[in-house]
TrEMBL record:
PANTHER family linked: DINITROGENASE IRON-MOLYBDENUM COFACTOR PROTEIN-RELATED, IRON-MOLYBDENUM PROTEIN
Native source organism of the sequence: Desulfofustis glycolicus DSM 9705
Pfam short name (any one): Nitro_FeMo-Co
Listed name of the protein: Predicted Fe-Mo cluster-binding protein, NifX family
Organism lineage string: Bacteria, Pseudomonadati, Thermodesulfobacteriota, Desulfobulbia, Desulfobulbales
InterPro entries (alphabetical): Di-Nase_FeMo-co_biosynth (IPR003731), DiNase_FeMo-co_biosyn_sf (IPR036105), MTH1175_dom (IPR033913)
Residue stretches making up the Dinitrogenase iron-molybdenum cofactor biosynthesis domain: 14-103
């Protein structure tokens, strides 16, 4: 299973970035092997609009089944829902911490966006 985690850097030891659409990186992690790919999302950081939709499309294309982030806006959330990707929000700490939290079963899936558009 692949999980996408918003990140401030390219490594599992990097801090989770709280912004889904505008995080500099999104790490797509295979939780069985812990192999990962760091997706450069920096092009969305200054986007006028559509950053969340672009990020959602990117993680879908990489086969992620779950997104872990701090905050997810309404358009990104709707795009992820349409792609049948589950969202876990209010995540902090390192990417590795987030993955371990998921693997231990101590996460709750989000049922709606928890940020305004263009956050």
């Amino acid at each position: 299973m692949k999980i996408a985690v918003t990140s401030q850097g390219k490594e599992l030891a990097s801090q989770v970035d709280p912004r889904f659409g505008r995080a500099p990186y999104i790490l797509v992690v295979d939780i069985d092997t812990m192999n990962f790919e760091a997706l450069d999302n920096s092009g969305n950081a200054g986007a006028f609009k559509g950053a969340g939709i672009q990020a959602a499309t990117m993680v879908h294309d990489k086969g992620a089944e779950v997104v872990m982030t701090g905050y997810c806006g309404p358009k990104a959330f709707a795009t992820l829902q349409a792609a049948e990707i589950k969202v876990v929000s209010d995540i902090a700490g390192t990417v590795a911490d987030a993955i371990e939290k998921f693997k231990s079963g101590s996460v709750t899936y989000t049922t709606s966006a928890n940020a305004d558009a263009h956050w």
